[in-house]
Amino acid sequence: DPDVRREVAKNPASPAARLAHLAEDAAPGVRWWVAQNAATPPAALAALAADPDPDVRCEVAQNAATPAASR
């Protein structure tokens, strides 16, 4: 259910492994929340920097946890 996955993706207490898994979700809205979450692992943010959705890429660029090379 995309609504449940979005809630998990935006929760700052979600485990890093879960956020990394959700970074590969088919729903752009889920990936958008993962990209915005400060708890998302840097490697997942680096992968999301190449996301096909421009809104996801924009959130990655604004996330302080994103590695500098991926901004």
Features:
globular, 0% strand, single chain, 5 helices, mainly alpha, 71 residues
What does this structure look like?
The structure is a single chain. The protein is mainly α and 71 residues long. It has five helices and no strands. It has helices spanning 2-10, 16-22, 28-36, 42-48, 54-62. α3 (28-36) packs parallel to α5 (54-62). The longest helix has 9 residues, at 2-10. The chain is globular, with a radius of gyration of 10 Å. The termini are far apart.
Oligomer: single chain
Radius of gyration: 10 Å
Helicity level: 55-70%
Terminus-to-terminus distance: 30 Å
Order of helices and strands: HHHHH
User: Any low-confidence stretches, pLDDT <50, length ≥5?
Assistant: none
Biggest β-sheet strands, sense, barrel: none
Determine the structural class based on helices, strands and strand pairing: mainly alpha
Please state roughly what percent of the residues sit in beta strands, choosing from under 5%, 5-15%, 15-25%, 25-35%, 35-45% or over 45%: under 5%
Provide mean pLDDT, rounded: 97
